[in-house]
């Protein structure tokens, strides 16, 4: 049973990834525009408050998220629950590990990443770039480390919310792109849109 389940999951993932490569040039355009604006906003805001080295590391983490959130939008790993939950849980784990075992990088680095993977699995928020977010918490500059749990809110949560907000706009610009995949979200969105529609004059 377990082997069959793994095979089914593999086939489903393979199909999703294959399907994402069949989009036309318009879809490539929206993926480019969304990721460009999302990462651009994060890079600008974080460059105002963090050292250049930390910005580079964090952009690496969010850049990996952008591949999923703008390029493979049907993937379960790209959904809002995974995007937000994965980064936040990993950030909390990373900061906690650093507080308990500071300055022993050969121990804190693997411990932060490994615990993040397990907690993301347990909470069904698996998001691969979360591992990098945990790693940055224990290997970043003193400015990052001194943030403590504020690291979870800024730059992590603020960056994630920017990516999500931009994704909700640009991933729904055409009929071929729907993000997130949750049907209830799109039903709610249609309801809200119908409220603001101007009714024709009688």
From TrEMBL:
Keyword annotations from UniProtKB, A to Z: Membrane, Transmembrane, Transmembrane helix
Pfam families recorded = TM_HPP
Which InterPro entries does this UniProt record tie to the protein? Answer: HPP, TM_HPP
Q: Does the keyword DNA-binding apply?
A: no
The chain positions of domain HPP transmembrane region read: 23-180
Q: What are the TM regions of this chain, as residue ranges? A: 28-46, 55-73, 79-97, 149-170
Can the keyword Transmembrane be found in this entry's annotation?
A: yes
PANTHER family recorded? TRANSMEMBRANE PROTEIN DDB_G0269096-RELATED (PTHR33741:SF5)
Protein's recorded name: HPP family protein
At the highest ranks, the source species' classification is: Bacteria, Pseudomonadati, Bacteroidota, Flavobacteriia, Flavobacteriales
């Amino acid at each position: 049973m377990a082997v069959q389940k793994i095979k089914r999951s593999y086939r489903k993932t393979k199909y999703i990834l294959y399907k994402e490569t069949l989009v036309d040039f318009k879809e490539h355009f929206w993926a480019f525009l969304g990721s460009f604006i999302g990462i651009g906003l994060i890079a600008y805001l974080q460059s105002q408050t963090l050292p250049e080295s930390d910005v580079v590391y964090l952009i690496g983490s969010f850049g990996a998220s952008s591949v999923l959130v703008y390029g493979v939008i049907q993937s379960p790993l790209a959904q809002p629950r995974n995007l937000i939950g994965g980064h936040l849980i990993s950030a909390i784990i990373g900061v906690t590990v650093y507080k308990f075992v500071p300055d022993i990088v050969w121990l804190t680095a693997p411990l932060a990443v490994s615990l993040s993977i397990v907690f993301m699995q347990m909470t069904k928020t698996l998001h691969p770039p979360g591992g990098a977010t945990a790693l940055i918490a224990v290997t970043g500059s003193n400015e990052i480390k001194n943030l403590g749990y504020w690291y979870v809110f800024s730059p992590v949560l603020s960056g994630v919310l920017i990516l999500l907000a931009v994704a909700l706009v640009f991933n729904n610009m055409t009929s071929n792109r729907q993000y997130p995949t949750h049907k209830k979200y799109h039903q709610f969105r249609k309801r809200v849109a119908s409220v603001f529609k101007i009714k024709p004059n009688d």
